[in-house]
Predict the structure of DNA-binding NarL/FixJ family response regulator.
Amino acid sequence: MSDFYARPAPLPVPPRLSPQQAQILYLIAEGHCNKEIAAACNTSLFTVHEQTKRLYWRLGAKNRTHAVTRAFRVGLLR
């Protein structure tokens, strides 16, 4: 079995997110693309890309779907 399908380690506590990261996570969960997120947050595409990478790192995620799933599991999204 490859590492891609391996179950990630559980997050002991929800990570702390900045208000901007929380807003970006919520918009990702709603299915918005980076361009739409940048417009909604009144920021650049570069900032959205960098904040998304930080979200992945904080959540131990590999992609958007994985990040949203992990966020639900730890109570960051409802």
About this structure: The radius of gyration is 13 Å. The chain has a mean pLDDT of 87.
